[in-house]
Amino acid sequence: MKKGLLFWLPRILSIVFLSFLLLLSFDVFEEGRSTLEIIGGFLIHNIPFFALLIAFIFAWKRDRVGAITFSIAGLLYIVLVIYNIFFREGVSWDEPLLSILTISGPAFLISFLYFMNWKRYGKP
Question: How far apart are alpha carbons 13 and 52 in whole angstroms?
């Protein structure tokens, strides 16, 4: 069976999204920090990347896995941002809203595309 755009689009967007998450983790490289602090910060910043990378590997052949994990990732990020708003002083809604749209938006789009692919080509 020939693979069409609906098959490839969520996979390509997943790679782009994972690359974006990896790029965001490079903010730990600051002058004046020790090597151990940089390595620790880099690993901690990349926990979502590694979790979604593992999910992406499983989702390559199982669209349902991609639909579920990327939607959970989007929801989890929204919950964590809202939690930080209520438990940190001086945080306005402007910055977190943009953050939610930037991270959760693509995750939900990718989840939707995996879901559509699963509904179209998946086994009943």
Answer: 13
Give the count of beta carbons closer than 10 Å to the beta carbon of residue 124. 3
Secondary structure of 33-93 as H, E, C letters? CCHHHHHHHHHHHCHHHHHHHHHHHHHCCCHHHHHHHHHHHHHHHHHHHHHHHHHCCCCCC
pLDDT, tens only, 34-72: 888 889 888 998 999 999 999 999 999 899 999 999 999
Structure tokens at 55: 């999910």
Find the Cα–Cα–Cα–Cα dihedral 110, 114, 115, 119, rounded to 10°: 150
Helices 94-121 and 5-24 pack at an angle, to 10 degrees, of 150
Decide: 110 and 66 in contact? Cβ < 8 Å: yes
- Neighbouring CB atoms inside 10 A of 73's CB total 23
Domain spans of the chain?
5-118
- Pull the structure tokens for residue 109: 């789009």
pLDDT single digits (tens) 4-29: 888 899 999 999 999 999 998 888 88
